[in-house]
């Protein structure tokens, strides 16, 4: 079993729809939870960062962490074609090694 | 305010040759990490370095792979005697602090082994 599970998709939605992404994990020591966005042939860029359980909102993006269920989510409201990318969840315990999900490829159709 | 700079962006090597990938961290960042990304897989940790020190190389194969971050100059990931299985995207990341997961990634170096 992988430490971080993420459905690779692909996910295709019409412009304006809500995109819902999620990951599950097995290591209860994870404390910091991140979502990275990676455009094709580019490096990952940090999108959202959450410490422990709870919600965090930044513009059209909302990240949720439920440590009791070992489940994290990312929601993108009013999706735009420019949101088309691969979204990687990542998490870390008290060391420096990020554990990544495989990434979900999202396409927003104009 | 330059980000993490990696070069070359693309590298083609024949089996048995050496590949040398370079990474300059963001200004003010003293922590450098190398990750490898294979198609359809997430990024896998390889090595964590600070200036002149390898902190953790547990994710790096024991044979043929080495990394350094000298006092002056970029960090270098070196792969000797490359094999086809080494074909991947290699990403360097840097951070100001450690243990928080806030990494800034470069554009990656894509190695193709013929």
Helix content of chain A: under 10%
Number of helices of chain A: 0
Q: So what's the oligomer here? A: heterodimer
How far apart the termini of chain B lie comes to: 36 Å
Mean pLDDT of chain B: 93
What does the secondary structure layout of this molecule look like, with pairings?
The complex is a heterodimer of chains A (110) and B (114).
Chain A lengths: L3 E3 L4 E4 L4 E7 L6 E7 L6 E7 L2 E5 L2 E6 L4 E6 L8 E8 L6 E2 L3 E6 L1
Parallel strand pairs in A: 2-11
Antiparallel strand pairs in A: 1-3, 3-8, 4-5, 4-9, 6-7, 7-8, 9-10, 9-11
Chain B lengths: L4 E3 L2 E4 L5 E6 L6 E7 L5 E8 L2 E4 L8 E4 L6 E5 L8 E8 L8 E2 L3 E5 L1
Parallel strand pairs in B: 2-11
Antiparallel strand pairs in B: 1-3, 3-8, 4-5, 4-9, 5-6, 7-8, 9-10, 9-11
Report what the structure shows.
The complex is a heterodimer of chains A (110) and B (114). With 110 residues, chain A is an all-beta fold. Chain A contains no helices and eleven strands. In chain A, strands 2, 4, 5, 9, 10 and 11 form a six-stranded mixed β-sheet that branches. The relative contact order of chain A is 0.35. Helix content of chain B is 0%, strand content 49%.
